[in-house]
Design a protein that fits this description.
- The chain is of the alpha/beta class.
- Among the domains are: 32-131, Arginyl tRNA synthetase N-terminal domain (Gyrase A, domain 2, 2-Layer Sandwich), CATH 3.30.1360.70; 204-313, no CATH class; 454-643, Isoleucyl-tRNA Synthetase, Domain 1 (Orthogonal Bundle), CATH 1.10.730.10.
- 54% of the residues lie in helices and 10% in strands.
- It is built from 23 helices and 14 strands.
- It has helices spanning 15-18, 32-48, 75-81, 85-99, 119-131, 160-178, 194-206, 212-215, 219-242, 245-254, 261-275, 278-291, 295-319, 329-332, 337-346, 380-395, 409-421, 455-472, 480-499, 522-541, 557-578, 583-602, 611-634, and strands spanning 58-61, 70-73, 103-109, 112-117, 144-148, 182-189, 325-328, 349-351, 357-360, 368-372, 399-405, 430-435, 438-439, 507-508.
- The strands form four sheets. A five-stranded parallel β-sheet has the order 7-6-5-11-12, sandwiched between helices. A four-stranded antiparallel β-sheet has the order 1-2-4-3. Strands 8-9-10 form a three-stranded antiparallel β-sheet.
- A hairpin with a 5-residue loop joins strand 8 (349-351) and strand 9.
- Helix 22 (583-602) runs antiparallel to helix 23 (611-634).
- The structure holds one RNA strand of 76 nucleotides.
RNA sequence: GGUCCCGUAGCUCAAGGGAUAGAGCAACUGCCUUCUAAGCAGUCGGUUACAGGUUCGAAUCCUGUCGGGAUCACCA
């Protein structure tokens, strides 16, 4: 099957249009940016005599070249206030000094009003982070979101593309959960059709009763091997057929000018398979028997699929993903016909002379699409309509997210538009989380060329790399704990590598270089956590009191940077949820870890010059560790105890 | 050909319309007798594909051009 990952969207369904949650912008209380926005808006409003929307006031962290912590951008208001930027800044700055309890000083550079905050603000911020259980998690909204991801075929093992799909789907689910939604995770398993019949037939003919157990193979690989074997045998049959007089005659009769025999037969293969191949005929026969419910065929089908599921479960367990419900194409492939009937009655669909049913989306920039064949059987989109409604009936989710590669953008655009015209109640909440294919440096992965990167192989390789690096470092721990640490590091590296790039981007994976463990990586972030973990253990051992922290008054820039980063976390989660984009969380965690590594290097923590500085830095470290752990948890990355 | 997506350092990627476009990798150079060097710091590397436009301000928004990809099945 040409498309391993059966599913797809369009950006025309923008978040804003489809997401009612967008209106709720929860931020934790006393947020400094919200407060500054309001104060600045009020100050400008007073100056120019008309009300200003606080959300239009842009507040940024001050760039390092200037003195200050946060900067209000005043350019947009100079015309309104009819003052020079500097004068406007001075008036707003003075008012902030007067009216607020937290602004210590200000300075103006062009239209930028740089604000320096008083020390007590930083202490309060730190205490709030520490005192908020699940800091960064948002209140429950009582709204349900269903996320579909993975969507495997049962004729072969999972590959690199599925890994990206699973990691995106999982992290997106975690992020939506943290943003306050009730998330249902599902997969649709493509368990029927020609592909699995090929594996079945090959096993029947050549398997000689072998099983995954007798061969010592994972079930999905075992079944996949028969799929490959089928393709090999077919190729052999085709090669032999090409030598026959019948084939030669066809070539002479139908060749295009200048077309070589090789090119001709390459093009002719599908037709040959359908019209001449003995194996092709047998597969079609098997599929017919499956559809007729032949008991032997169904028994074989169940047997082979159960082998595959065992294998999938093992891979999912390695990836740390799971599902609340599985949907099977064998259950859903006949669905949607009643919807077609409704659509005809509503006049959304129309019937052609041959009896096939269509929808005309040309006014929306799409084509006419068939939704039911002339013989009354379903097509892909019919099933998807049926499945969508089934899910809505199962869970009542107003929003459903499909994590599917971008090659299916058109399909999902059409599906969503169709459901909208049918007036389905969840239609506005449909979203296709469309991600770019993972490519190799040589281009797209191709089954036929044997360039598919297998998921299990990939995981094994990264594990091996992490093990090797741990050995080189002369790890201080051994046994099961060491192995668990290595597993977390390896998977952390793999997951961060896949998630940190924007979903929509195609990404290139170079198996030669594998996955880095240094630099901008998962282990880099884990390492900063491990450092803190070590400090905390020591603090506990030595019974260090942390209550003196508030006595510390002259904060270092490195400390403020960390606190500013901590403040951002809840809004990062929200943005990631709104945009269905886990890469925001990944890049945030990296920034936070980077800031911490710098502080670690620049400033003594345990050996700080005074007990209150030590207490403050330990508390700050704890807040960073807590936030890093929470952020990585959203990506499915666990922390090793030691590195 | 129509539609959609993408084009940022040699490579892999960041950057809510905001100040001098940032990281990592690769190459070179420093830093372990102080909390773990899977770390830190430095050097090198950019006309953000190109041309216009909008704006106080554009990698970001608009138009066009060029380049890459996907898709345009009564396949799933």
């Amino acid at each position: 099957m040409a498309h391993e990952q059966l599913r797809r969207s369009s950006r025309r369904l923008t978040y804003r249009a489809s997401c009612p949650g967008n209106a709720i912008t929860f931020a934790h209380m006393n947020d400094i940016v919200l407060a500054l926005q309001q104060e600045v808006a009020a100050a400008i409003a007073q100056l120019c005599g008309q009300s200003i929307d606080p959300s239009k006031v842009q507040i940024n962290p001050t760039v390092s070249e200037f003195k200050g912590d946060y900067t209000a951008v005043l350019f947009p208001f100079v015309k309104l206030a009819q003052k020079a930027p500097e004068a406007l800044g001075a008036e707003v700055g003075e008012r902030l000094l007067r009216e607020t309890t937290y602004v210590k000083s200000y300075n103006i550079a062009k239209g930028f009003l740089n604000l320096e905050l008083k020390e007590h603000f930083w202490h309060e911020l730190l205490q709030e982070v520490l005192a908020t259980p699940g800091y960064g998690r948002h209140p429950r909204r009582g709204e349900c979101v269903l996320v579909e991801y993975s969507s495997p075929n049962t004729n072969k093992p999972l590959h690199l593309g599925h890994v990206r799909n699973c990691l995106l789907g999982w992290s997106c689910s975690q992020i939506l959960d943290a943003a306050g939604y009730d998330v249902i995770k599902v997969q649709i398993i493509n368990d029927r059709g020609v592909a699995i019949c090929k594996s079945m037939l090959a096993w029947q003919k050549f398997g000689q009763g072998r099983t995954p157990q007798t061969e010592g193979l994972k079930g999905d690989h075992f079944v996949g091997d028969y799929y490959v074997l089928f393709e090999q045998k077919t190729q052999e049959e085709y090669a032999a057929w090409q030598q026959t007089p019948e084939a030669q005659a066809l070539y002479e009769a139908h060749r295009k000018p200048e077309q070589s025999q090789k090119e001709f037969f390459k093009e002719y293969k599908n037709r040959w398979f359908n019209e001449h191949s003995r194996l092709g005929a047998e597969v079609r026969d098997l599929l017919l028997r499956w559809e007729a419910g032949d008991p032997d065929t169904l028994a074989l089908w169940r047997q082979m699929n159960s082998w595959v599921y065992e294998g999938f479960e093992a891979t999912y367990a390695q990836l740390g993903v799971c599902f609340d419900k599985n949907y099977y194409e064998s259950d859903t492939y006949l669905l949607g016909k009643n919807i077609v009937e409704e659509g005809l009655q509503k006049g959304v669909f129309f019937k052609k002379a041959d009896g096939s049913v269509w929808i005309d989306l040309s006014d929306a920039g799409y084509d006419q699409k068939v939704v039911l064949r002339a013989d009354g059987t379903s097509v892909y989109i019919t099933q998807d309509m049926g499945t969508a409604r089934m899910r809505y009936e199962d869970f009542g989710c107003q929003r459903m997210v499909y994590v599917v590669a971008d090659e299916q953008n058109y399909h999902f655009a059409v599906l969503f538009e169709t459901l909208r015209r049918l007036g389905e109640p969840y239609a506005e909440g449909l979203y296709h989380l469309s991600y770019g294919l993972v490519e190799l440096p040589t281009g797209r992965m191709k089954t036929r060329e044997g360039t598919v990167v297998d998921a299990d192989d990939l995981i094994a390789e990264v594990l091996q790399l992490a093990r090797q690096q741990a050995a080189e470092r002369g790890s201080s721990i051994e046994g099961p704990e060491a192995e668990e640490n290595i597993r977390r590091i390896a998977m952390g590296a793999l997951k961060f590598f896949m998630i940190r790039v924007h979903p929509k981007r195609r990404m290139v994976f170079n198996p030669e270089e594998s996955v880095d463990l240094q630099g901008q990586t998962g282990p880099y972030i884990q390492y900063s956590w491990v450092r803190i973990h070590g400090l905390m253990q020591r603090a506990e051992r030595e019974g260090i009191q942390l209550s003196a922290a508030a006595q510390y008054t002259s904060l270092e820039p490195q400390e403020k940077e960390l606190l500013k980063a901590l403040r951002e976390y809840p809004s990062v989660v929200l943005t990631a949820a709104q945009e269905y984009d886990p890469s925001h969380v990944a890049n945030y965690a990296y920034q936070l870890a980077k800031n911490y590594h710098r502080l670690w290097h620049d400033l003594p923590i345990f050996n700080a010059p005074s007990p209150e500085v030590r207490a403050f830095r330990l508390q700050l470290s704890r807040a960073v560790a807590q936030t890093l752990e929470a952020a990585l948890h959203l990506l499915g990355i666990e922390m090793p105890q030691r590195m």
